[in-house]
Amino acid sequence: MFQKVLIANRGEIARRIIRSCKRFNISTVAIYSDADADALHVREADEAVRIGPPPVAKSYLQAEAIVQAAVDMGSDAVHPGYGLLSENAAFARLVEAAGLTFIGPTSDAIEAMGSKVNARKLMAQAGVPTVPGSLGAVASVEEARRVAGEIGYPVMLKASSGGGGIGMQLVHTPEELERAFTSNRARAESYFGSGEMFLEKYVASPRHVEIQLLFDAYGNGVYLFERECSIQRRNQKVLEEAPSTFVTDELREAMGRAALSAGRAIGYRNAGTVEFLVDANRNFYFLEMNTRLQVEHPVTEMVTGLDLVEWQLRIAHGEELGFTQSQLSCSGHAIEVRVYAEDPVRMLPSPGTITALTLPVGEGVRNDVSVEGPAVITPFYDPMIGKLIVHADNRENAINRLNEALATYRIEGIKTNLPLLREIAASAAFGNGQTTTDFIAKLQASK
Asked: ATP-grasp domain: which residues (predicted)?
């Protein structure tokens, strides 16, 4: 096993990786910006390296400085966590070129899925269902109007390099498309350095269901069932659960086979997730592949009993998967909610100083958090404070456990989305499993 791993990330995911490394007696190296000098992930790692000033572009996105820190500290591997540089093929190549192990897929696999246009082509070739749309990038507004006319309005105009809901625009008419094409391309160039865009047919009120994969380096792969992540705000997930109330055994098997085909098409290894849109008739369509650990991975851990970070380490070190698909089972029901420093009404970041924090405890309750007491939530990074995960023998009991846990969750000093999470968890629509991607909009409209 590895002797020392540098964690190229921060906050709760850095702490999560440290916990699994400790079980293998692997030394850990944290990196930190000046804003995180006193952060828990820095104190809990065996060693730590300052990487730059607070702005993320000058610290956690400094790929060359991070790889040099890994070399200087005598690390033999780098874990990227999620977000930041985790899906940056150039960063993975730097790690590989330095003679270190990147704990994740190969740089080629990351690059293959990094372009949504390229990924759609690859998936179509692999027989994975994709949403009807342009076969490649649309080069001009005239081409976009032609394609939209063929597939029918409304359509989604999407940035090929987009993510987190940025670079997506719903378009209902040719006139809207003309305006959106220019503005969306400018935004994509600004955020992602590429204005390449493509078109997809708009799927109304879908569910967002994803399949967790594990592949070793010897071609063995399994799917670890599904997570439903339909409850979102600004196209970013707020609540995830497993299993999905909407997925039948037959659909689960079909989506699992399709996800494995997606992974095999690019020679994937390590942990990855294939995201699908599922329409009201249970047709499913490839959305994208996340070539990294997901924020919501604890949901899968709770229902399978597997430690996904542990298996990332094992696979990266060259171990074969220790189980086959038929040996896997899904036990009980798990729900995760993301606790953000944000205004619960406007749903915009609300950084500041946490003056008091009380986390819920009890059977089947797990907290993956970046802070455990008074602390500053800076404006420089994602405002997620942590994740609350609950597990029980069935969905009804898991919802009851979630409601009880949220009732005792206390954060003072800043605004958080806890009121919104409590409202969601207690709603009849959630209890009934009516969880489409427009869930929050419908909840707000019902008031």
From this structure: 120-317
pLDDT of res. 164: 61
- Tell the residue number behind the tokens 């790692």, with chain if given: 45
Is 263:220 a contact under the CB 8 Å cutoff?
no
3-state secondary structure of 397: helix
Instruction: Name residues whose C-beta falls within 8 Å of residue 207's C-beta, 6 or more positions apart in sequence.
Output: 228, 230, 244, 246, 277, 278, 435, 436, 437
Q: What is the pTM of this model?
A: 0.93
Token pair for 3: 């002797």
> What are the residues whose beta carbons fall under 8 Å from the beta carbon of 21, sequence distance 6 or more?
5, 27, 28, 313
CA 183 vs. chain centroid, Å, equals 26
Average pLDDT along the chain: 94
- Do 418 and 344 meet the contact criterion of CB atoms below 8 Å apart? yes
* Residue positions counted in the chain: 447
How does strand 77-79 pair with strand 4-7? parallel
Q: Convert the pLDDT of each residue in 123-141 to its tens digit.
A: 999 999 999 998 888 989 9
Residue 418 corresponds to which tokens in the numbers above?
A: 């806890």
Q: Work out the number of other CB atoms within 10 angstroms of the CB of residue 356.
A: 10
> 405 is written with which tokens?
């846990």
Catalytic residues: 292
Longest dimension (CA), the chain: 61
Phi then psi for residue 250, to 5 deg, are: -65, -45
- Would you call the peptide bond into 154 cis, given omega within 30 degrees of 0 as the criterion? yes
Token reading at 269: 């290894």
CB 87 within 8 A of CB 227: no
Rounded Cα gap, residues 92 and 112, in angstroms:
13
Alpha helix ranges (H) inside 107-173: 107-114, 116-125, 141-151
Distance CA 14, CA 6 (A): 10
Q: Which amino acid, 396? A: E
